[in-house]
Design brief:
By secondary structure, the protein is α+β, with helices and mostly antiparallel strands. It is built from 5 helices and 4 strands. A hairpin with a 2-residue loop joins β3 and β4.
């Protein structure tokens, strides 16, 4: 996402989650506890309100809590739900000339720091859930 998490995206995620839940129930049989997503991470780049919600996962968590009050589906459809707010990659990235060529674009240190944190958290082996279908863990024997 860029700059915000609009209601249309929440609606899309709800539809996508309904489809995922339908597919997992066909695969493993109906299960009321089945979740559409094991881990859903929403990344919002070019966040424009760092004074209200700080960059990173903590600000994202607070921001997402407000959005979840509008859509109960997301909290019920995911085993893990996270949000990460990122600054703009560079001040001049919105300039039409830079967007045409991308020449001379230097990432801001703020963006680089949060990109590194996001990727480190996302790929942390201690936080990667065991993949499952219909709440049945997938092993190398499948």
């Amino acid at each position: 996402m860029i700059a915000d998490l609009p209601a249309e995206v929440l609606e899309f995620l709800e539809n996508f989650g309904d489809y995922g839940k339908l597919m997992s129930s066909e695969e493993a049989g109906p299960n009321e506890d089945s979740k559409a997503f094991q881990k859903l991470v929403v990344l919002i780049r070019d966040w424009t309100r760092p004074a209200q919600f700080k960059y990173g996962d903590k600000g994202g968590k607070t921001f997402l809590a407000g959005k979840l009050s509008q859509s109960q589906f997301l909290s019920k459809s995911s085993e893990g739900l996270e949000c990460f707010l990122m600054p703009s990659p560079a001040e001049d990235v919105r300039s039409p000339e830079v967007l045409k060529t991308l020449a001379g674009l230097t990432l801001s240190s703020n963006f680089s720091r949060y990109a590194h944190k996001f990727i480190s958290d996302l790929l942390n082996p201690d936080d990667v859930p065991v993949k499952s279908i219909g709440m049945i863990p997938i092993t190398n024997e499948h």
